[in-house]
Amino acid sequence: MKKNISSIIVILALIGLLVATFFLQYEFLFLTRIVSLIFAIVYLVIEVKQEYFSKRKPLFILFSVISMLVIAVGIIVDETSATDGFHARSFMLLVFVFILLVVSYKDLYNKNEGGK
């Protein structure tokens, strides 16, 4: 099965952006950025091992739900510990992550349907 190089490049760019944010605003959403970096690395592994996860879609869905919940908890912890108040716009990160997960799942589904 041919690897989707553009998806791997996007994930690597996301990892680079997350690493760069530690040097720009290190005190804002610190825990959330660490959690997001860990999950981005794991999704890179999922993208590389796409054949394995295309056959085990419930595992991908379970991991997606867990990552959404952990990122939400990270945002809540970061926002409650911040000294400048609560920002509801931080939860837009969850919408962005959800869209990326839906696109990744559709990519897995299309790879599995094409392989049959």
Task: Provide the number of structural domains.
Answer: 1
Name the overall outline: elongated
β-sheet strand percentage: under 5%
Question: What composes the largest sheet?
Answer: none
- Percent of residues in helices: over 70%
Give me the oligomer status: single chain
Q: What is the N-to-C order of secondary-structure elements (H for helix, E for strand)? A: HHHHH
Q: Radius of gyration over alpha carbons?
A: 15 Å
Beta strand count: 0
Averaged pLDDT? 81
Structural class: mainly alpha
Low-confidence stretches: none
- Please report the number of helical segments: 5
The first-to-last residue Cα distance is 12 Å
Characterization of this structure:
This protein is mostly helical and 116 residues long. It has one domain (5-115). It is 81% helix and 0% strand. The chain has 5 helices and no strands. Helix 2 runs antiparallel to helix 4 (57-81). The termini are close together. This is Permease. Keywords: Membrane, Transmembrane, Transmembrane helix. The chain crosses the membrane at residues 7-24, 30-46, 58-77, 89-108.
